[in-house]
Amino acid sequence: MAKLHVTMTVNGAEVEALAEPRTLLIHFLRENLALTGPHVGCDTSHCGACTVDLNGKSVKSCTVFVAQAIGGTVKTIEGIANADGSLHVLQEMFREHHGLQCGFCTPGMITRAYRLLQETPNPTEAEIRAGIAGNLCRCTGYQNIVKAIRAAADQLSSKKEAAE
Amino acid sequence: MSAADGTSAQERKDKLEGLGCKRKRVEDARFTQGKGHYIDDMKLPGMVFGDFVRSPYGHARIKKIDKSTALALPGVKAVLTADDLKPLNLHYMPTLAGDVQAVLAVDKVLFQNQEVAFVVATDRYVAADAVELIEVEYEELPANTDPLKAMAPDAPLLREDLKDKKEGAHGARRHHNHIFTWEVGDRAAADRALGGAEVVAKEFISYQRVHPCPLETCGCVASMDKINTHLTVWGTFQAPHAVRTVASLISGIPEHKIRIISPDIGGGFGNKVGVYPGYICSIVASIVLGVPVKWIEDRIENLTATAFARDYHMTGEIAATKDGRITGLKCHVIADHGAFDACADPTKFPAGFFNICTGSYDIPAAHLTVDGVYTNKAPGGVAYRCSFRVTEASYFIERMMDVLARKLNMDPAEVRRKNFIKKEQFPYKSALGWEYDSGDYLTAMDKALAAVNYKALREEQKANREAFKRGETRSLMGVGVAFFTEIVGAGPIKNCDILGLGMFDSCEIRIHPTGSAIARLGTISQGQGHATTFAQILASEIGIPASEITVEEGDTDTAPYGLGTYGSRSTPVAGAATAMAGRKIRAKAQMIAAYLLEVHESDLEWDVDRFVVKGAPERAKTMKEIAFAAYNKVPPGMEPGLEAVSYYDPPNMTYPFGAYICVVDIDVDTGVTSIRRFYALDDCGTRINPMIIEGQVHGGLTEALAIAMGQEIAYDELGNVTGSSFLDYFLPTAVETPVWETDYTVTPSPHHPIGAKGVGESPNVGGVSAFSNAVNDAFAHLGLTHTQMPHDHWRVWKTAEKLGLVK
Questions:
Q1: What ipTM does the predicted assembly reach?
Q2: With contact defined as beta carbons under 8 Å apart, do B554 and B714 qualify?
Q3: Whole-structure pTM over 0.95, yes or no?
């Protein structure tokens, strides 16, 4: 099968590779780029374990062809930490509020929460729950995830206020 | 007491982060940064990918398999069928239940999506292409997917390999689809109680087939090193040592040449206890090809082929006096085990611990029979977030209690309170043979009733029913009360083994010269946070901060032998081993401290993190000092070093319990059921890490919600699975999941070294009954005694319609 020439920006770095046109973005990230943070949980875009940020939107990378992401900007869990290497407040709050157990949904969940807080910086509990409804977790019952995202929103907004 | 350095005992205790501390998890750093290491993250040089050709039929004869087109596809390395495995005697593998299971279908297929051929190719896309190119010719046979019809005289013969076998692993077989009959209790006494009873309530209660469905599916990487003849298998194994022993027994490879490693596991819930054809085929393919072979299930394969749970069909009869005192119980179960009996239970318990079905009640006479049957459905029968068949038992008795309450026209909470095993009756011997270790049920129940203001809820419900009657509302309120007693921590070797391996567990500890430590256990975390909590147990036992103790699990070359993590056994068994190994360390440390302080051992006492001379607290040796001395200054005649190992054979199971109350509002025109409130009180004995306990309860309740309100692996009459992806299989999102209220009492286990009982599965065991009781309760005043799960909108609407409520 003729291969596609794929270029894109992933976690701030330019990447270039050859891939079959049918290659899914999740497999390109995991197997070509060794970014194994995002996971495959269902293959049918229900569970959200494969969630990454593509051109400023949350996408389920198990149902995106790599061809659709050519020239795009991708952020995965590996690119969520702050530029100085410190953890993003979401990563800290997930730990602080016990928002994860087996950890399999966590990369997708945090990546989704990262985008949610850009879309809705001060979400209500209902908005958080609706905002992560595309990401399934089998361990936590969501309660502590919701708490963690709300706490992260508080910290981000107080940081923003301090900066202003 | 204050130490010589001025620190108070409390300050030093806090620094340890031991028992009772809400310690943050050490696992989280890697998981929150995408640096977990799950099975599909593994990549080895030269690794190839396996994929299955699966049966489209529930029951069919295989006429012909043509693999030539697939083999001609570039990138395809091998195609295995049963004919390739037969010469190796690997076409069948033994199951944990004493049956055999086809690794690849032999002559016929017995369930939809059964493994027929194993394709190996250079990447997963090519493997998937090759699966499509294998032509299998089938002759369809009549299927049976109804367990209640399995033993009909004219039911189709499923297991031709067992046709002439009159004896199974658990006694006589009386029909070609019969697996076993398990009988417990005193039939005559139960019959007498029922015959002479003032009131008898009878009900048929089905617990539908469901699937544990962890977010990560099953998978493995098998790598045969042909030069050293050494096999390594990484995989999603809840019991890595047992897998090693089974792999050795099946393959003939000596056990010391096999290494099994469980990396991070993305949830298990029972799904990852068994040995699956994918593991065996990957191992065979790696041996044949000499390269590592990876096999990862997709979600449909996971839901349809590996390890279902429940599928129990229970008929109960309960006898009582007019004022509500229970005098006897009978239960008969038809247990659907699918096409092979691959149920994961201790050997002597073909229906697990279902004989805990007398629940939390003092029932003087009881009798139980369970008939296991074959059907054209996937094999399994694992404990989905519960101990062996305990969720089924708990659901059975908790529904029966409500059915009895209706018959007596009594309040469901009151019937329970009246029949509880009393605090002073523990240890309590049940009519079906268990010895409950400890409990204070009435205190727990009354705390729960008070917390939700139960009386006010019933008054509100009365007003709601009157308003509904007047046509002022289309919503009915239901209150579900459930009380449960679990039986976990299998188990005492005298009655618990798997394949002859006693169900002990283990911990090995090494203290390093500078006073930090590593502990290795025979269990394996799948999200429970073992690396966090086992270090806490140890910190309290040996006075080394939890943050300076590494906990390692899951590698059979380094961990002591253990039976793994399922059935809430890690804390009751491996947690006990950890405490006991810690005590061995402390005993040796005491001898070293006595030598260093030039006193007799009996002159020393333990003080948080050090030994001090009685009456002279300024003379002390900290565990750190002792650790260093262990490597250079031990008493004459003593071996240097500070290590210990404990293999713990528990004297009894542990019996966690709890009281759950659920309030629902049902829209009778749509069947939509809103969970207004859910209160869960758990008693798991000594609490190791309250933060983790609460997290476990939240998760278990959410799985209970899923089961009670929507999950079902359903089959049609032809043997087709009618829902096998997340389109159909209900996993609650954050939107459907309510806010959970948690609470607790503490009744330590008297026989566990630290009094802990285990908690991970309690919320699932108690939760399902609470939801189902609430839905049934909403319609109780209209004459409904029982309606089957799952209580999805359509079924609830059907119930309302049958009761004439839908306009």
A1: 0.98
A2: no
A3: yes
